[in-house]
Design brief:
This protein has a five-stranded parallel beta sheet with strand order 8-9-10-7-11. The chain has a three-stranded antiparallel beta sheet with strand order 12-14-13. The protein is α/β, with parallel strands linked by helices and 593 residues long. The longest helix is centred in the middle third of the chain and has 28 residues. The chain has 25 helices and 16 strands. The termini are far apart. 44% of the residues lie in helices and 11% in strands. Keywords: Membrane, Transmembrane, Transmembrane helix. Pfam families: nSTAND3. InterPro entries: nSTAND3, P-loop_NTPase.
């Protein structure tokens, strides 16, 4: 018996024992749970022996949350859907044969489910949403699409909506078990649970290991990556990953075919991370790949005048930024364009903020960069749902939290949900919020709510909250790194005097550890970074409002957050709110890089 299953069985927590009850029931039902067709006698017998106080009205909700947390196996099929023997398979698999469906989920995996049929519009195909635990439909991917409306369980539709692999003589499906026959005790039939659960855990450990290895590879440029930086992984086929991560596949194709790709998006969409993922993919194909990251105009000019030998891939990240003046932009783009002209045989990845891209699209088009453009603001619902599911899993949120997130799924997955902050950053932030927070209110203006959250820390009378603000301010002004063993003592002392005089530096380690998973993540022993890059912008503005000179002096990238009123575009407050501060100076601010 796996330790996880034994822990559920022996737990004093009713929810944990309720999960064990559901798993035990499924073990006796061929790993199937149809909430619309439960064997009440069997379930009641198990309930009396495992958790007498279990409320059966929570069964559907609990099963849904267990699916999100990877406890329930997909009813996957090894081959094609059983079209040739549909009647017998549906009768064996579902209490109501009309509820039997064989179709793909949102990750492209073929499996079967018992669910009440829904109407599917013409030119669309049925699918099963694992996260929402319901039938849905998607655009028909090929020609010969259904020209009429039909029920989701109808199999005599056009072939584009029939899910097949290699048609063979035998079709494998999971059917109901007969282990409860005769006088056999239910507990004698729990062997499947003891076999399948360890297998699930092993698979999850392998996936986690793969994720860890991929992040180690990517860390050659950066010590660590924030959680909103998603590596879209899946434990199934490569096709499934490709379908769920359209942006990555499109960018990879541009690099392979044209040696260029431009990635745009608002803050928090994962521009830098997509660049990291592309680098990692190229390194898998070419072990001795030589790459160079360039994040300042001065470094680009130096490389342009004297190119480094044998560089295969250049990543021009952060050369463009939202507060970049119109007088500075032409020089940057001209330098980039000249650089590309000189290295036609090398691959180049360029990141550009959405605001700068839209503002200068005509100029970008002249350089033909619009022909290799990836817009991360325009992810479709499938890609967003994959991000949402992945982050919910990564943050290990509980069942109630996951259920509340699912209730606002339509708001989250809608088109152009957020104009000033990226979808991954919003989901990562929401996964960490306490239960009493109203998600609907957060989604009205996420960036404003995040700004208010920082101000609440600064104004708090509780030393623990003020300490969080001091630590976030330190990270913002110290190149985003906090090393407990090598603290910039004058800086943290000044911040303590400004914002938290009761803060004892001997308690720094304890306060930092309490912030892991909320604002910080640990790179390695004693070293920490912010888990969302957006926090550093909001915190800089907050500190600058108290002491502009101090903030400007201690942050080498301050020109990216400060702008003269006379230079500020009229639409900047709307396009980039809460992330910069206006000043009234005669002289121009020094450009970065």
């Amino acid at each position: 018996m796996s330790r996880e299953v034994k822990a559920m069985k022996d737990s004093r927590d009713k929810q944990e024992r309720g999960m064990y009850l559901i798993l035990a029931y499924m073990a006796l039902q061929g790993r199937v749970l149809d909430v619309n067709d439960v064997d009440e006698n069997l379930f009641d017998e198990l309930r009396r022996k495992i958790e007498p106080d279990y409320d059966t009205t929570n069964l559907e909700k609990d099963a849904e949350m267990m699916a999100i947390n990877h406890f329930l196996l997909q009813n996957r099929i090894g081959e094609s859907c059983p079209y040739e023997n549909w009647t017998s398979v549906s009768r064996d698999s579902c209490g109501n044969p009309d509820h039997f469906h064989c179709l793909k989920d949102e990750y492209g995996r073929i499996g079967w489910v018992c669910a009440e049929p829904i109407w599917i519009e013409k030119d669309r195909c049925p699918t099963y949403n694992v996260v929402a635990q319901k039938l849905d439909s998607v655009d028909c991917p090929k020609s010969r699409c259904p020209p009429y409306n039909y029920r989701s369980n109808e199999i005599n539709v056009e072939y584009s909506c029939r899910y097949t692999l290699d048609i063979g003589s035998s079709t494998t499906v999971v059917t109901n078990s007969t282990n409860t026959a005769g006088n056999q005790s239910p507990y004698n039939s729990l062997l499947p649970i003891f076999i399948t659960i360890p297998l699930i855990i092993i698979v999850l450990i392998l996936v986690a290991a793969m994720f860890y290895i991929s992040r180690r590879k990517l860390s050659q440029h950066s010590d660590a990556l924030p959680p909103e930086a998603i590596k879209f992984m899946n434990d199934d086929s490569e096709t499934s990953v490709n379908e769920a991560n359209y942006s990555f596949e499109k960018a990879k194709n541009y690099l392979e075919e044209k040696k260029r790709v431009v990635i745009t998006g608002v803050q928090g969409t994962g521009k830098t991370y997509l660049a990291e993922s592309l680098v990692s993919n190229m390194e898998e194909k070419r072990r001795k790949l030589k790459k160079m990251w360039i994040s300042s105009l001065s470094k680009l000019l130096k490389e342009k005048s004297k190119p480094t030998r044998n560089v295969d891939l250049y990543i021009l990240d952060d050369l463009f930024y939202e507060l970049q003046l119109d007088s500075e932009f032409p020089e940057t783009l001209t330098t980039v364009n000249d650089f590309m002209t000189n290295i036609t045989e090398n691959c180049i990845i360029i990141t550009v903020p959405s605001y700068i891209w839209r503002k200068h699209i005509a100029i970008f088009s002249k350089t033909k960069l619009d022909e290799v453009h990836i817009d991360l603001n325009e992810r479709d619902h499938r890609e967003k749902r994959f991000i949402m599911t992945f982050l919910m899993s990564q943050h290990c949120i509980n069942r109630e939290h996951a259920s509340r997130l699912n209730t606002v799924e339509n708001l989250l997955l809608g088109k152009s949900s957020f104009k000033t902050i990226g979808f991954p950053a919003v989901i990562s932030w929401m996964c960490k919020k306490p239960h009493e927070v109203a998600f609907e209110r957060m989604l009205v203006n996420p960036l404003q709510k995040m700004t208010e959250e920082i101000e609440e820390l600064k104004q708090s009378h509780r030393i623990e909250e003020c300490a969080k603000y001091v630590i976030l301010s330190y990270l913002t002004l110290n190149d985003g790194i906090l090393d407990i063993t090598n603290v910039n003592t004058p800086l943290i002392h000044t911040l303590k005097e400004m914002f938290a005089r009761g803060f004892q530096e001997k308690d720094l380690n304890r306060y930092v550890e309490s912030m892991v998973g909320e604002y910080l993540f640990k790179i390695k022993e004693s070293v920490y970074k912010m888990d969302l890059n957006i926090w550093s912008k909001l915190v800089f503005v907050s500190v600058a409002k108290e002491n502009l000179g101090f903030a400007e002096k201690n942050n080498k990238n301050s020109p990216r957050h400060i702008i003269n009123i006379k230079d500020c575009p009229n639409d900047m407050d709307e396009a980039y709110p809460d992330c910069f501060i206006k000043v009234n100076r005669v002289e121009n601010l020094s450009p970065t890089g």
